């Protein structure tokens, strides 16, 4: 989406995360980088203490590995944060090196699905983008809505099968998590946690490079929304380069927006939704060429954030 919205100050979020993490893991669990907006989490923090089994087996090893709260939500996944802590919000990675992240949002709403079913829209999945990334061996990270995954299971399998692609979470049906977010219908507050948890579960079924990265629709979030996601042990990823590709009429402004402010560590926001972002595939070769001219190299989001 083209406009950045105000959010809870990163410093406040960091403080809250550090406080919650300290309760769970002891002192200094969080390496706080010098660069504002970039957060690094510990590589391995037990998500929760598992209850002792009622009838422990005498032969059980004394040093069994920590058990996570739910299968597939291991603290080893990129972006995993201590369960119960307010999620950190990340815009970009360290401003060192030459790596940048190409991130593609796969939006799908109830209204979009009706468009597909009625035949008014042919596709919200831009195969030209995926073909190009595969042909050129370009790493990318896909923020998938649950409804998009349900609409395009074969394509989701194809994304998961590519070792250069990471999978992340963009809610189930692209509902707004704040009262005023570009006119998107709003998810009731009591359903926020389940909406995002359900999407992680859906995406997890496809395997591949899973993460605990999450992006709000329209990047709209407030303290209530962040609090609702605390049980899920995730990292919120906004981005520092907004390409503005939704409903673009020409590829040139998209290329300009993607390259204008790009720097080492940048997280570039694009869309793979074809009918709603019809110029992105035409812009992408120019964006890749422009990055190369600047000595910048696409990498999976986890590597750009220093968590890979
Ligand atoms: Zn979106």
TrEMBL record:
Pfam name, any one: Polysacc_deac_1
Domain NodB homology intervals: 98-299
SUPFAM superfamilies, per the entry: Glycoside hydrolase/deacetylase (SSF88713)
Compositionally biased region (Low complexity): 46-71
Alphabetical keyword list: Signal
InterPro entries documented for this protein: Glyco_hydro/deAcase_b/a-brl, NODB_dom, Polysacc_deacetylase_ArnD
Renumbered residue ranges of the record's region Disordered: 46-94
Record-level GO BP terms: carbohydrate metabolic process
Signal peptide: 1-21
GO molecular function: hydrolase activity, acting on carbon-nitrogen (but not peptide) bonds
Domain of life assignment: Bacteria
Protein name: Peptidoglycan/xylan/chitin deacetylase, PgdA/CDA1 family
């Amino acid at each position: 989406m083209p406009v950045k919205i105000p959010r809870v100050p990163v410093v406040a979020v960091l403080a809250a995360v550090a406080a919650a993490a300290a309760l769970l893991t002891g002192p200094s669990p969080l390496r706080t980088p010098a660069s504002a907006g970039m957060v690094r989490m510990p590589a391995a923090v037990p998500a929760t203490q598992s209850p002792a089994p009622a009838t422990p087996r005498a032969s059980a090893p004394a040093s069994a590995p920590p058990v996570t709260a739910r299968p597939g939500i291991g603290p080893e996944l990129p972006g995993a944060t201590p369960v119960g802590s307010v999620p950190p919000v990340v815009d970009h990675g360290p401003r060192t090196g030459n790596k940048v992240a190409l991130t593609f949002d796969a939006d799908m709403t109830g209204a979009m699905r009706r468009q597909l079913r009625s035949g008014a829209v042919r596709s919200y999945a831009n195969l030209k983008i995926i073909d190009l990334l595969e042909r050129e061996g370009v790493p990318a990270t896909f923020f998938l809505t649950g409804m998009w995954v349900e609409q395009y299971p074969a394509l989701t399998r194809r994304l998961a099968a590519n070792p250069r692609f990471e999978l992340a979470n963009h809610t189930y049906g692209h509902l707004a998590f704040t009262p005023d977010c570009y006119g998107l219908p709003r998810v009731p507050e009591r359903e926020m946690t389940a909406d995002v948890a359900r999407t992680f579960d859906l995406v997890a079924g496809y395997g591949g490079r899973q993460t605990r990265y999450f992006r709000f629709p329209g990047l709209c979030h407030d303290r209530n929304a962040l609090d609702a996601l605390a049980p899920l042990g995730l990292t919120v990823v906004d981005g520092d380069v907004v390409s503005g590709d939704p409903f673009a009429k020409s590829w040139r402004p998209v290329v300009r927006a993607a390259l204008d402010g790009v720097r080492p560590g940048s997280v570039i926001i694009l869309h793979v939704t074809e009918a709603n972002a019809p110029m992105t595939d035409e812009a992408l070769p120019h964006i890749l060429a422009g990055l190369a001219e600047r000595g910048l190299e696409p990498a999976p989001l986890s590597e750009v954030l220093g968590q890979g």
